[in-house]
Amino acid sequence: GLEKISLSHYNWPEVNIDLIQEKLELNMDTAGLIIQAALSGREKAKRGLRWPLSEVVVVSSQDSVWEAVDRLKDILKNQINTKEITVVKHLEGTKISLKPNHAKLGPVFGKDTKTVIEKLAAEDSEAVVQELFGR
Prior knowledge:
By secondary structure, the protein is mainly α.
């Protein structure tokens, strides 16, 4: 009962700019990254998607991550197959450690690479990350 032989012969509908929710799109981008990280973690832990997790903890100090998890919690839980998902600023009982990548540092620092690595080793890893990334 269609006027045309195929759906591909119809024109695309007009875009209604008023219906576009940029904040939701940003939340979905963030959710996609969380899902990707969670699935990668499941793979590393050899825990298939078929088996539900009791909880997934997202560590972030960014308000946008907290908002995305709050707004899209049910979608995240479904895609990751977890019973609960929470966001924390710092995961208790963990600490940051740095491992210099000699192959990347060498071309940049040349003969000073060894000195740079020694200086990094002498610094507090948490302080270095805070300085570099503001976390």
